[in-house]
Amino acid sequence: MTVVSHGLSGYFVGYVDVREASRILNLPDDIVCLFLLPVGYPHEEPTEKQLKTIREISFGNAFDCGGEYGETTCRSCF
User: Fold this and answer.
1) Cβ distance 77 to 67 under 8 Å?
2) What is the spatial distance between Cα 30 and Cα 51, in angstroms, rounded to a whole number?
3) If we measure between CA atoms, which residue out of 59, 17, 62, 52 comes closest to residue 36?
4) What are 22-56's pLDDT values in tens digits?
5) Element (H or E) spanning 9, and its range?
6) Cα distance between residue 52 and residue 70, in whole Å
7) Residue 5: in which H helix or E strand, if any?
8) CA distance 62 to 74
9) Using an 8 Å Cβ cutoff, are 22 and 33 in contact?
10) How far is CA 20 from CA 2, 9, 15, 31, 42, in A?
11) The pTM is what?
């Protein structure tokens, strides 16, 4: 990624007060700010992250179907 090769860092902000962001950014009425991607030099050196498994961040067909965490006990679970 070009940003990283220049020593910059960024993160995705997915929850934004759409009206307030549009006001601050002085956007015209026909343009809406749906998310932000701040980019800058990190204050600290980033550390390696422990990524979650797909089962920890997703579900299939039904939320909380009764199957135990990490188990595939029903057809709806991964």
Assistant:
1) yes
2) 38
3) 17
4) 899 999 999 988 888 888 888 877 678 788 887 77
5) strand 9-10
6) 12
7) helix 2-5
8) 10
9) yes
10) 30, 24, 12, 13, 26
11) 0.44
